[in-house]
Amino acid sequence: MITLNHYLVLSGLLFSIGLVGVIKRKNLLMLFFATEIMLNAVNVGFAAISNHYGDLSGQMFAFFIIAIAASEVAVGLGLLILMYKRKSSVDLDTLTTMKG
Amino acid sequence: MEKYLYIALFAPLLGSLTAALFGARPKTLFTGLWTSGLLAVSWISSILLFLHVYADPSANVVHVKMIDWISAGNLSIPFGFVVDQVSVTMMIVVTTVSTMVHVYAIGYMSHDKGFNRFFSWLSAFVFSMMILVMSDNFAGLFIGWEGVGLCSWGLIGFWYHKQSATWAANEAFIMNRIADLGMLIGIFLIYWNTGTLQYNEAFTAMPNLEHTLLITIGSFLFVGAMGKSAQFPLHTWLADAMEGPTPVSALIHAATMVTAGVYLVIRANPLYDLIPEVGYVIASLGAFVAMFAATMALVNRDIKRIIAYSTLSQLGYMFVAAGLGAYWVALFHLMTHAFFKALLFLGAGNVMHAMDDELDPFKMGGLYKVMKPTAILMILASVALAGIYPFAGFFSKDKILEVAFNGDHYILWGVLWVTAGLTAFYSFRLIMLTFFGDERYKKLGFHPHEAYPYMLWAMAPLAVLAAVAGFFEHSFVHFVTTLLPSYEFHTHHVEMILIAVTSTIAILGIATAVIIYKNGMLHPKWMERPCYKLFTNQYYIPQFYDAVFSRPYKELSVIFWKQIDMKIVDATVDLIANTLFNIGKDTRGVQSGNLSIMLRWMALGVTMLLIFGLIFVAAATLLG
Amino acid sequence: MSEHILSILVFFPLVAGLLGILVDKDSIRPYAITVAGIEFILSIWLWSEFDMNFAGMQFIESVPLIEQFGISYTLGVDGISLFLIIMTTLVTFISLGSLTVTNRVKELMITVLVLELTMVGVFVALDAILFYLFWELSLVPMLYIIGVWGGPKRLYAGIKFFLYTFTGSLIMLVGMLYMAYLYYQATGTWSFSLLEWYRLQLPYDLQLWLFGAFFLGFAIKVPMFPFHTWLPYAHGQAPTIGSVILAAVLLKMGTYGFVRFSLPLFPDASVTFMVPIAVLAIIMIIYTAMVAYAQEDIKQVVAYSSVSHMGVIILGTFALNVEGITGSIFLMISHGIVSGALFMLVGVIYDRRHTKLMSEFGGLAHVMPRFATIFGIMMMASVGLPLTIGFVGEFLSLLGFYEQSHMLTLLAGTAIIVGAIYMLSAYKKAFFGEVTNEKNRNLPDVNRVELFALVPLTALVVILGVYPKPILEPVDRSVTAMVKLMHAKAVTDEGKDRIADVLVTKEAK
Question: In the prediction, which pLDDT does A2 show?
């Protein structure tokens, strides 16, 4: 039987994959991918719990996250293109102007 | 009668303040005359007060309270003054010698740039001394005490361009301060145990105090006296104080300031009568100092220092008398000594002036021909000092020896007797070397001349007093013992023998000196002997003090500053500050500006929070 | 007007100072001196209106600020603070009058006036938070004075001064808050009013903690050993006017705090800590005197001598009897005058030679006799010569503490010896001997601007030395009341024993 636990484990695994990606990746585009993976992992989790408890608010939350993720990607990719035009690279390590 | 008290007290102050106005200006004869005149006024007032008190000692004591000085808590110290038998005697001594010295100094300092400043300080000194002897409470005594210390500093270091003078001035002040601490502790003890600092009230309360407490008080007060009267071991400043002009030595270091310690013991006689053990210690110390100083005077090659050691020696005599309870004898010797010692110093001043401030008697000789009046005056003073009848010193010194013998203190008597011989010897050694024998000065190119006549006239009254003061012994005793305890002599049967014995050794001393020095100096082989070296170098005590106290203190101070204050205390503060600063600097790396690093920190933070949350929840559920 | 005299005294310099921004540069000097002069006259007027026979607080004004926490704007003056206020206004007035700084004079004068506000405020505040406010505020103008018009290492010195003192004060603030909380627990209402705190009797162990907290704040300000190392730097780098005000007034805020807060609020803790604090005071006296003796810079000699004298003040305060505390307060005033004058005198020679090293001087008495005389008088006052103002306070403080401990007072009494050693030595190096340095040969003597400051101070030194009664009397009365309060509030037996019982008159045993 596929229980709630399986979904939560899946969600956790996906989240960790995304987290590792966020930590390790130098390429900004890959960073976006990893962030998307994390968001979707959370979506899976929400949907599973919502189904388990019969409460629809979890799935509504997942919808919100999908919408927000999409808009965030739009803005982020726009900024990424601008950055590429300026620095001709999408390497994270070139972003150092906020050094303390 | 009160107005005479105020006149006697404040006339010198007025003189000092007016002279101070001209302090920085070149010499004006007016300052000398004005201050001397005011001192003469003070002198006359003192005499009038004396006659008043003498007429009826028990009823005519003059007592005034001016204003409240310090009142806090239960303490109330007024500016109060009393003219009783003891203080009026001191007043007469102080004003007489001061007036003569002032007049003398007009001549002595006539070529000095700081003429006005000198008289300002000198009169200020007399004012402080008057406060000291006229005060009716211990705090007033302390005011005068410190005041004379200040004026002594200013006068010893008068020629402030000379390093030796300013060094001696500082030495005197600091040594006196060490003793003053003892006096302060004594004053504190008196206040906290009797509730008052007034003489009469404190002394009335003292018999009710515990004996050990009285010993403590007496000891601490005597420590104060030791500083002022230069008793061993606080004696080195007195010889060095000869850096000051000779009138200063005559006034301060012969007649007045150094006698303040003796005055204190005499004034506190109700206390010291209760603690004869302490008195015996005082007397023993006095006898020691008498002999100690006399040995150093035997070989010294500086006329002023010889006389200074002589003063120290005689102070020892006074303390023997006071310590053994014969207070009037001490006071009497104080008085006679003031006269002939001041005279001796003033004469030495004449000699110095004649010899261009040369101090070594070995460079003089045969000055009798050129300076007959001075020579006669100095011989007179020396004879008085040696204690030969009929001069004053005979009466007073003899009495002290009698006191020692009387109390069966034969060792003390022996020491004092030998010292009497030494005293006579070194006094006449000085006279012979300076005034008689070969005229060594001629080879060295000096052209001595006698002092101004008015200076000699100023010295004359002192000479007269040194000659005849002894004959007033009986009236003096009668007068003073209405206040001071009289001393019972049990030695009337041996009195004449004692006098004969004492006079013999004195005459022997004089004769020895005359014979040895008749033809000039002593054989140089004498100077090789170890005891000669010991005496000449003042028993190496100044070097000892320098090596054990002065230099280590300075080095310790530098260590305290450079090593401890800067390296340890301050470094600790800076360490704390730098640690904080470095922590900040190191943690700045967190703000690297690099997104991936910051994301890593964020991830780490989230993980930590989760773990803590889990632990917290687990703990909460486990512990319920 | 007399009901609000204290508020006027506090805020007048601030208002006048802010208005001074509008005054143009050339008239700022007379303007500031006039303002300071008016302030001084107001404080004298306060003295004349002061009732000498009343021991408690007078001219009390109280306006609640934050009702829920009991913070109010309460001012009051009694014998203890009256003369500190007068000394503050006097020192500000004459130091402004003899100012010789020429760059950015306007900013300096306004800063000094704002500083005056905070100083007077500290001495009249009767609400703990208000006191703390003025206390901390005084650091800011002082930081500016050191940091802008100071010497080469001024930033280090100023920041060190600020942060060091600030840290101590923060701990004191914690103590204050805890004290208010205890008051709330005991009575049910919040209050920071000092007069109400006086009525609270605290248990012994709490007293110890609170005393410690307040102690840190005050001890760093005084400054007590080993928290004193900010002072030599601050004095060394500050301009003359900064040093004068720092030494004369700001240091007294610390000792005033002890008398106003630590002693009456925590009597038993004061008794317990008396011996350790006395030991610290003795170290201050002797150690800093020795360090002063080793100095080569004459201003540092005076700076370390300040610490040495503060040691005697602390000793007098912790004598816990009327004589000692009265002596310590009088010594506060006396030290303010004498140290202020000494720093001004150092400023005089610095203005001429731009160096403070004693090796550069020597023989100055030949060249500047009047200067040498005034310096000599101040030196003797510093050393504690009777008939100068310096003796009265020192005598009473030592006398008072003698009752508590003979041995410690004997050690502390060496203050008169070590004080004489460094002072006489410094005077000799600078003034006596021949004129060794050619640059010294033609220095002008003190001029009228400098004498404007020095003559009144010299006069006070002598007059108050001879007749200290006008000051001693009201101080004595207020201190007696305070000691009575302390004795009544003491909860431990040792407290009752050690704190003088002023109802018992001294009899010969």
Answer: 83
Give pLDDT, residue B429.
Answer: 87
Judging contacts by C-beta atoms under 8 Å, the chain A residues touching residue B590 are 100
Q: Report whether B364 contacts B443 (CB < 8 A).
A: no
Give chain C's mean pLDDT.
Answer: 89
- Residue B593 and residue A96: Cβ atoms within 8 Å? yes
d(C-alpha C255, C-alpha C269), whole Å? 17
Chain segment C152-200, per-residue pLDDT in tens: 988 889 988 999 999 999 999 999 999 999 999 888 888 898 888 888 8
Entry pTM:
0.88
Which residues, numbered 430 to 489 in chain C, qualify as contacts with chain B under a Cβ-Cβ cut-off of 8 Å? 431-434, 466-469, 472-473, 475-476, 479-480
CB atoms within 10 A of CB B21: 11
Split at pLDDT 50, 70, 90, the class of B40 is very high
- Closest by Cβ to B185, choosing from C413, C466, C502: C413
Rounded to an integer, the average pLDDT of B473-488 is: 80
Residue at token pair 């009037």: B328
Is residue B3 exposed (0-12), middle (13-18) or buried (19+ Cβ within 10 Å)?
exposed
The tokens for C197 are 């705190």
Higher model confidence: residue B61 or residue B14?
B14
Q: Residue A98 and residue B599: Cβ atoms within 8 Å? A: no
Does residue A96 form part of some domain? no
Give B72's strand partners.
B75
Helix (H) and strand (E) counts in chain C: 24, 2
Calculate the CA dihedral of residues C391, C397, C403, C405 and round it to 10 degrees. -110
Residue by residue, DSSP assigns B277-313 as HHHHHHHHHHHHHHHHHHHHHHH-S-HHHHHHHHHHH
Contact B503, B389 (CB under 8 A): yes
What's the Rg (C-alpha) of chain B? 32
- CATH at A56: 1.10.287.3510
Percent of chain B with pLDDT over 70: 98
β pairing state of B75-83 and C58-66: unpaired
Is A99 inside any structural domain?
no
Amino acid at B382: S
Whole-angstrom distance, CA of residue B238 vs CA of residue B540: 15
Can you tell me the distance from the alpha carbon of B565 to that of C384, in angstroms, rounded to the nearest whole number?
A: 26
Interface test with C, best of B153, B191, B559, B561 (most C CBs within 10 A): B561
Question: SS3 for C292?
Answer: helix
Neighbours of C403 (CB within 10 A): 19
Tell me whether residues B595 and A95 touch, CB distance under 8 A. yes
Distance CA B450, CA B429 (A): 21
Answer yes or no: do B170 and C370 touch at CB < 8 A: no
Give 10-residue mean pLDDT values along chain C (509 residues): 82 89 85 91 91 84 85 90 94 89 87 92 92 94 92 89 92 93 89 88 90 93 88 91 92 94 91 92 92 91 92 93 92 94 92 86 86 92 92 92 90 90 91 82 84 90 91 91 88 78 47
ipTM given for this complex? 0.89
Structure tokens at B506: 């004195």
DSSP, res B492 = T
Q: In total, how many domains does chain A have?
A: 1
Q: Are B393 and B340 in contact (CB under 8 A)?
A: yes
Would you say residue A22 lies in a domain? yes
- Domain containing A24: what range? 4-88
Q: Residue C157 gets which letter from DSSP?
A: H
Cα(B198)–Cα(C476) distance, integer angstroms: 21
- Tell me the H-state helices in B300-391: 303-323, 327-354, 372-386
Q: How far is CA C352 from CA A59, B181, B582, C31, C230, in A?
A: 86, 38, 42, 26, 27
Q: Is residue A95 in a domain?
A: no
